[in-house]
């Protein structure tokens, strides 16, 4: 019967999709391609009046297969994408964008630019207004490629000096790219979102032509406008700009304080700690200790010799002066149950000693202050250092032994 035929047809399609999914998950690209071919052929034989919207599925799956298939070529990929553009008007601009990304990944800059220009001129009734966001992205990426061309011309100009008509022609072309890039980049970053690459490029254009006020305004808006999602990079870019402009330490610290609140493990926390340690204000020096302790809570920092050096130096200063031991105690109380196993095991002492003696020295000093002279890490490293007749390790051992009462006060 007609009903039974439709039911069987639906089941066979679902089974085919299941096989495709299985092949994709197992990275069996050839097998996935064969099943996709069957799926497309089956759709051509579908005489049911039910609305079926498989075009996006074919686009997504087909793109994934062609990207990974060992025998696919860029020519085949381009042909497939052109077919996908005609399959669904609603997805036209999205397919264009994905096509551009693949062209860029293959170094075909000119072809990508051409595709963006064609997409930018696309109009289809009401769909043009509905796809306004996609059109903004199309324009933004064209601005990005204009920036790329501007950057190339800028480098040519800087390499060849300022003589001759050829340089004048290069400069004129460069200004042309600047105007086109600036217009599109400025538009996209007005919309709340994460626009890191576009913001960086636009700020670079503004700085090159000396428009520092506009650059500052763009970065402040990107970092502090509550309509934009929380984005650590926004504060990184602002900090880097302020540093280039030679701004005050107060401004730099303010930018990094917010970054610390969002991502306490960010690599700029060493810069932040260094600035805070140089401050004459007690609260800022205390914050510096908090910052470096917080960074070392993360596994990615376990073997960062610079971070351990920052912590060791500050702890040593506090221990010698015997002022603000409560700062150390406050930070250590929440960590004393897990830092010993995380940072100061005998296994890590052996490995650190073999791989990086400078790191093992800084960590041993910290371990000795926080855990006393009987700490496994400190005992192993100081013993190995004295055995190797390294003067700094003998001094390290003496320092920790001399200040053992401080450890007792910290440990409570």
From TrEMBL:
InterPro entries: SL1/TIF-IB_Component (IPR052669), TAF1A (IPR039495). One of its GO terms (cellular component) is RNA polymerase I transcription regulator complex. It comes from the Eukaryota. It holds the Pfam family TAF1_subA. One of its GO terms (biological process) is transcription by RNA polymerase I. This is TAF1A polymerase. It comes from Ptilorrhoa leucosticta. The gene is Taf1a.
């Amino acid at each position: 019967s007609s009903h039974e035929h439709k039911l069987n047809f639906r089941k066979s399609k679902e089974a085919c999709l299941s096989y495709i999914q299985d092949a994709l998950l197992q990275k069996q690209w050839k097998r996935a391609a064969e099943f996709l071919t069957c799926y497309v052929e089956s759709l051509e034989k579908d005489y049911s009046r039910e609305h079926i919207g498989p075009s996006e599925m074919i686009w997504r799956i087909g793109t994934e297969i062609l990207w990974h298939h060992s025998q696919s070529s860029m020519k085949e990929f381009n042909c497939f994408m052109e077919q996908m553009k005609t399959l669904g008007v609603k997805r036209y601009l999205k397919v264009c964008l994905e096509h551009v990304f693949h062209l860029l990944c293959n170094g075909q800059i000119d072809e990508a630019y051409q595709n963006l220009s064609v997409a930018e001129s696309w109009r289809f009734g009401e769909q043009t207004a509905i796809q306004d966001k996609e059109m903004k992205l199309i324009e933004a990426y064209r601005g990005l490629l204009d920036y790329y061309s501007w950057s190339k011309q800028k480098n040519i100009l800087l390499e060849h000096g300022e003589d001759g008509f050829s340089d004048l022609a290069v400069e004129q072309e460069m200004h042309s790219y600047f105007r086109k890039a600036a217009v599109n980049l400025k538009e996209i970053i007005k919309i709340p979102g994460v626009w890191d690459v576009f913001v960086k490029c636009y700020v670079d254009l503004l700085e090159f032509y000396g428009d520092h006020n506009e650059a500052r305004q763009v970065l402040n808006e990107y970092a502090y406008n509550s309509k934009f999602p929380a984005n650590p990079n926004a504060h990184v870019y602002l900090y880097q700009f302020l540093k280039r402009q030679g701004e005050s330490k107060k401004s730099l610290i303010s930018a990094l304080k917010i970054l610390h609140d969002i991502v306490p493990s960010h690599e700029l926390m060493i810069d932040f700690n260094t600035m805070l340690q140089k401050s004459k204000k007690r609260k800022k020096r205390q914050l510096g200790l908090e910052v470096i302790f917080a960074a070392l809570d993360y596994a990615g920092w376990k073997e960062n010799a610079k971070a351990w050096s920052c912590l060791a130096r500050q702890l040593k200063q506090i221990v010698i002066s015997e002022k603000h031991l409560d700062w150390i105690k406050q930070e250590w109380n929440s960590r004393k149950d897990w830092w010993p196993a995380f940072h100061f095991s005998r296994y890590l002492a052996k490995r650190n000693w073999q791989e990086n003696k400078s790191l093992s020295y800084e960590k041993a000093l910290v371990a000795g202050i926080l855990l006393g002279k009987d700490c496994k890490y400190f005992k192993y490293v100081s013993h190995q250092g004295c055995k190797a007749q390294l003067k700094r390790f003998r001094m390290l051992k003496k320092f920790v032994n001399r200040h053992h009462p401080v450890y007792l006060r910290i440990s409570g």
